[in-house]
Write a structure and sequence with these properties.
By secondary structure, the protein is mainly alpha-helical. The chain is built from two helices and no strands.
């Protein structure tokens, strides 16, 4: 996310920016999404990306341990 935010802010001040993803392994089946905290939403608004098209709100999360 930090690379995307950096690119967004650089574009706001006139830079021409390309962002590339690099990984040593194939990115298949990775993760289930990004959890948004208030600070992330503020950063999205500040970057110009906005928050209008975000996914769904999840009002409660439960974390389970292996035990």
């Amino acid at each position: 996310m930090s690379g995307l935010f950096s690119a967004a802010f650089l574009r706001q001040i006139g830079w021409d920016v390309d962002v590339y993803e690099r990984s040593a392994v194939e990115l298949v089946g990775r993760g289930a999404g990004i959890t948004g905290h208030p600070e992330l939403l503020e950063a999205l608004e500040a970057s110009g990306a906005g928050t209008k098209d975000l996914g769904i709100e999840v009002p409660k999360r439960v974390a389970l341990d292996r035990d």
